[in-house]
Design brief:
The chain is mostly helical. Helix content is 47%, strand content 0%. The protein has helices at 2-13, 81-106, 122-128, 131-153, 178-209, 213-219, 226-230.
């Protein structure tokens, strides 16, 4: 139940990033833009940006070293908006996952005979969750994904528009102008990209160290065992 409560709280907080009424509705796939020669990628200045990334999408910096945005034969729904939907969804999940790695190191419920809340390594904590707790998580996440599929993939909503925030379920009363909203969109996509890199970092460190994030940071300031053996070059008191 602790996991469900944490997920609900974090999903509610993520509503600040979404505002559906100002997002353009997705219609039929538009043809790819005409090739533009010699346009340098803002992300990789030593390369040329693909013509499909013409800067019209918020957060587009011409980053596509594998040319995925130009491969229309394998692009779902023949629209680059599919990739933006995937990027937003992965980024939002990564933001929640990063909080899940860190927050239990700051606070967690006390353990008892049947529940172990003291495991601070998020990767190991998954095995400590009771079986029915994992079932509850699967049902809850599955329901959210079904709604997203119906609205953003099968439906006409634009990428990332799941009906939360301004114009939808808006418990915080967000009311942005067009310029403010576009700035929030840019902030979200930057946070998503940073979170995807960040969660890879904490995931890999969790595998290598077997410790929680805060534990790893604290251990970075401990003197190693060989410190005393290396020798003090100054007498005590100096």
């Amino acid at each position: 139940m602790k996991s469900i409560a944490c997920v609900l709280a974090l999903v509610a907080s993520a509503s600040a990033y979404q505002a559906p009424t100002m997002m353009a509705k997705r219609g039929k796939a538009s043809p790819a833009p005409a090739p533009v020669q010699g346009v340098r990628s803002a992300a990789l200045p030593f390369t040329t940006a693909p013509p499909s990334l013409d800067g019209s999408m918020i957060g587009d910096v011409g980053f596509d070293p594998l040319g995925l945005s130009m491969n229309t034969d394998y692009m779902p729904f023949e629209s680059i908006k599919w990739y933006r939907e995937a990027e937003l969804q992965h980024g939002r999940v990564a933001q929640l996952a990063w909080l899940g790695f860190v927050f239990p190191n700051i606070y967690h419920f006390p353990s008892d005979a049947t529940h172990n809340f003291g495991e601070l390594n998020a990767l190991a904590a998954v095995r400590a969750v009771p079986q029915w707790g994992l079932v509850q998580l699967a049902v809850f996440v599955g329901a959210l994904e079904a709604q997203r599929y119906a609205k953003c993939i099968k439906g006409d909503n634009a990428a990332g528009d799941v009906g939360l925030g301004q114009g939808g379920f808006n418990p915080f009363g967000f009311e942005y102008t067009q310029e403010e909203y576009e700035e929030k969109q840019l902030q979200e996509i930057k946070h998503c990209r940073l979170a995807m890199l960040g969660v890879l970092g904490v995931w890999w460190q969790g595998i290598l160290s077997g410790q929680g994030v805060i534990q790893q940071i604290g251990g970075a300031f401990d003197a190693p065992d060989y410190y005393g053996k290396a020798g003090y070059y100054f007498p005590d008191g100096i």
